[in-house]
Design brief:
The structure holds 2 protein chains of 2 kinds. Chain A is mainly alpha-helical. Chain A has one domain. Chain A contains 10 helices and 2 strands. Chain A has a two-stranded parallel ribbon. Chain A is globular, with a radius of gyration of 21 Å. By secondary structure, chain B is an alpha/beta fold. The model of chain B has no long low-confidence stretch (mean pLDDT 92). Chain B starts with a strand and ends with a helix. Chain B has 10 helices and 14 strands. In chain B, helix 4 runs antiparallel to helix 5. In chain B, 34% of the residues lie in helices and 31% in strands. Chain B folds into 2 domains: 209 residues, Rossmann fold; 50 residues, no CATH class. In chain B, 43% of the residues are buried. Classes of the chains: A mainly alpha, B alpha/beta. Chains A and B meet through helix 1, helix 3 and helix 4 of A and helix 3 of B.
Chain lengths: 256, 289
């Protein structure tokens, strides 16, 4: 019986995602519970607020994108799988992760919000909701859907950017990797503000206003992130389509 | 009969030419020895065969179809690498994962070989010793039952017992499934008996591509006292000489005419000695085929 060439690389990606996802969500559930238990023991009656679930989920998506490629690529090439299939599997996995993590994140936020003395509200409600939606974030299904699409869009952008970096880092030399690692934050936090300082003040303000007005609309933000994610996916493929297997690849420490 | 063909393959790494205009064909039903000194281009050739990198020019074809990014072709080629390609997992898990990728992988065969080598199934692949690391790679390659199996330095770090077992396994597997097995090695003397065809690369160029029998019938050896051997060799084409104590062995081209003189002994050409002489000779002349 002919076996699909997609089956094994997809299984490998999703199995690793399941393994890592269980750990990260376990921690994200455990943390507020520990907060609650700690406060109950040492500061009874004290209310606590916790808002890191969505952010942690998005950061995980980025890190997963950065780190998942290398092992899957090595095992896939050893297994006689073409690069396009390996990259397609990686993309399918990050897309599924971005989409699935949004409702999971909401569910975890909802469940941990049920802890007595907790004040846990989805980050989306704080950014895009009014007073009523912050007070009762789970009352409006459309609002929740909007929040999930927003988070999925941002997660997709971050995971594709991470995947691109993972693919790029695989190909470039050690020195270029160090240079890039330093250059990216320097460019973001020093280069861009410096560049903006040379531009006419009115123009910069207009630019910032336009960007902020775009971010004020969650649908627009999600759409923009999805487009940027797709761009990073294309860049990732460009850096991968002819990538050679590194000589003497060293063992990695990722979950298997 | 399946064929893996290299057509004018050149591989350039910046200013280093690893392979230069290499053309030859591998066929199923043979055990090939891919021989060459360090830096000859053996590992590069294996990488190109498995689609691990793309040649600068030329073509690698499996039954007329390019190997590069060709799922059907890549599934029929298995290659061991000098490094480890498996993520952090146990030996048994590694085999089970590999079985998912390789359609003809036989878990029973892999476990049987692991048992015979006493390979610890629960050890992490990364923590295996050099020898057991080599054994693991060799087992998954042989158990894949791929029509083209490339083994890169398959006896690296193996003790004498394990090397002996390896040779027996190759023969067993080949008898059971007569595919194309390519053994790339430095230890020619030990593998010589296995090989029915030799491909010699030297400085990225193809130096020799012929049946082992044909190669060995290119000449013969003469052993005896140095003066007698020198007298016999005078006027004959000599591949090279080896001196041990007072005895000399000369490797001569052609066939002996008549019986050996009383103080000399004729022998078969030795593959390793021929290889050494050929590559030295080529080095001296700076000229390869």
């Amino acid at each position: 019986m002919k076996r699909s060439v997609w089956k094994a690389p997809l299984a490998y990606q999703f199995r690793n995602l399941l393994f890592s996802g269980l750990i990260v969500w376990g921690i994200l559930i455990l943390l507020p519970v520990l907060f609650f238990l700690g406060l109950s023991l040492f500061e009874p009656g004290e209310e606590f607020s916790y808002g890191g679930t969505e952010t942690a989920s998005m950061i995980f998506c980025f890190v997963w994108g950065c780190t998942s490629w290398r092992d899957a690529f090595h095992l896939g090439l050893a297994g006689g799988v073409p690069r396009r299939v390996l990259y397609g599997s990686a993309l399918a996995c990050v897309a599924a992760m971005s989409i699935l993590f949004a409702p999971i994140s909401l569910l975890v936020t909802f469940l941990t919000g049920q802890l007595p003395t907790s004040d846990i509200v989805p980050m989306f409600a704080y950014i895009y909701g009014g007073k009523a939606q912050i007070a009762a974030p789970y009352a409006d299904i459309n609002f929740l859907l909007q929040g999930m699409v927003w988070q999925a869009g941002i997660s997709l952008f971050l995971s594709c950017a991470g995947l691109f970096l993972g693919c790029l880092y695989y190909r470039i030399s050690r020195w270029l990797r160090i240079l890039l690692t330093i250059a990216i934050p320097v460019m973001l936090f020093v280069g861009v503000p410096t560049l903006l300082s040379f531009l006419p003040r009115d123009g910069v303000q207009e630019l910032i206003r336009a960007a902020l007005s775009m971010l004020e609309n969650s649908w627009l933000t999600a759409g923009l992130c999805a487009v940027l994610g797709a761009l990073f996916a294309v860049f990732g493929w460009i850096s991968t389509r002819n990538a050679a297997l590194m000589r003497n690849p060293q063992p990695s420490a990722s979950a298997g | 009969m399946s064929q893996l063909t290299y057509e004018h393959v050149t591989m350039q790494f910046q200013d280093v030419t690893a392979l230069e205009n290499v053309s030859f064909t591998l066929e199923s039903g043979h055990i090939y020895g891919l021989l060459g000194r360090n830096g000859a281009g053996k590992s590069t050739l294996l990488s190109l065969s498995a689609g691990w990198r793309r040649q600068t020019s030329g073509r690698v074809l499996l039954d007329g179809e390019p190997v590069w990014e060709n799922a059907a072709a890549l599934r029929r080629i298995v290659c061991t690498s000098d490094g480890n390609l498996f993520p952090s997992m146990t030996v048994e898990k590694g085999m089970r994962w590999y079985a998912r990728y390789r359609p003809d992988f036989s878990m029973d065969e892999a476990l049987d070989m692991a048992g015979r080598f006493e390979l610890p199934l629960r050890s992490k692949i990364q923590s295996l010793s050099t020898g057991y690391g080599t054994i693991f790679k060799m087992i998954v390659a042989l158990a894949s039952n791929a029509p083209f199996t490339f083994l890169d330095e398959p006896i690296l770090g193996l003790d004498a017992n394990h090397r002996d077992l390896f040779y027996r396994l190759v023969v067993e597997h080949f008898a059971h499934n007569p595919r194309c097995i390519v053994i790339s090695t430095h230890l020619i003397e030990e593998c010589a008996a296995l090989l029915d065809h030799v491909v010699v690369l030297h400085r990225g160029r193809l130096l020799l591509d012929e049946d082992t029998e044909q190669t060995l019938s290119r000449g013969y050896s003469v052993t005896g006292p140095a003066a007698a051997v020198a007298a016999y060799a005078a006027g004959r084409s000599v591949y090279g000489e080896q001196n041990l104590g007072g005895m000399t062995t000369a490797y001569l081209e052609g066939r002996p005419e008549g019986p050996a003189p009383s103080n000399l002994e004729f022998g078969r050409l030795d593959l390793q000695q021929l290889f050494i002489q050929l590559t030295n000779d080529s080095e001296r002349r700076g000229n390869t085929k």
